[in-house]
From TrEMBL:
Organism: Bradyrhizobium ivorense
Keywords assigned by UniProt, alphabetized: Transferase
GO molecular function: holo-[acyl-carrier-protein] synthase activity; magnesium ion binding
Name listed for the protein in its UniProt record: 4'-phosphopantetheinyl transferase domain-containing protein
InterPro entries: 4-PPantetheinyl_Trfase_dom, 4-PPantetheinyl_Trfase_dom_sf
Taxonomic superkingdom: Bacteria
Residue intervals of the 4'-phosphopantetheinyl transferase domain: 10-45
Amino acid sequence: MYDRRTLKQRDLFVLKEAVYKACFPMDRQFLDFKDVEIDIFARSGRVSKANRTFSLELLISENRSGVFAAE
């Protein structure tokens, strides 16, 4: 379970979207929101449907955020 601050900032959505965008070109599978599991503390995203795990880096500045996802 994540705290409200994390969910408020939409970090979870941004991380899931990054994993989806990294996975789709490799497998050409459409994923639902529930198909991507994020572990913020381990900095990883898992797509069990495609049997792939991605390393994540969430970068937040004063007015922007970005994510890097790599298998």
